[in-house]
Specification:
single chain; 139 residues; mainly alpha; 3-stranded antiparallel β-sheet; 7 helices; 3 strands; binds zinc ion
């Protein structure tokens, strides 16, 4: 199994490249800020089950609430800085990297398959920055 830091970073990097800011905010507000799924769901107009679903994907990778919380907290600012590569135009989605039109359901698959290098590069960058900051704070 993947390093939880790398696995969670990859999950959220793909969400941000896809332009899914709501999933990222939901995960952060649930795991880091401790808001309830129904509060978050109400705020972003999604179901509380969806909020739990996003958080569960993170928990599956971390296997521990405190680990999930500290990883999401550490990577959150870096994730927010990533520019989405998918643009929504009148209900359609266009990949800015390759000009391909996508359906909503295919966006993440497209990013994982066609832009793997970009994903890998961002994940490595973020994971290394977080590890560097962790080792500095111990000293
Ligand atoms: Zn593309």
């Amino acid at each position: 199994m993947d390093d939880p830091l790398v696995a969670i970073t990859r999950y959220l990097v793909i969400k941000k490249l896809a332009g899914d800011v709501i999933a990222i905010m939901a995960v952060k507000e649930y795991l880091v800020d401790g808001l309830s799924p129904s509060t978050i769901g109400h705020k972003y107009n999604i179901s509380k089950f969806r909020v739990r679903g996003y958080a569960q994907r993170i928990m599956d990778k971390a296997r521990n609430h405190l680990v999930a919380q500290s990883i999401v907290k550490a990577i959150f600012p870096y994730i927010l800085n990533i520019e989405p590569i998918v643009l929504k135009v009148r209900g359609r989605y266009i990949c800015l990297k390759c000009d391909q039109q996508l359906t909503k359901a295919r966006i993440e698959h497209h990013i994982r398959k066609k832009h793997k290098e970009l994903v890998d590069q961002l994940v490595t960058q973020i994971a290394e920055s977080v590890k560097r900051r962790r080792s500095e704070s111990i000293v």
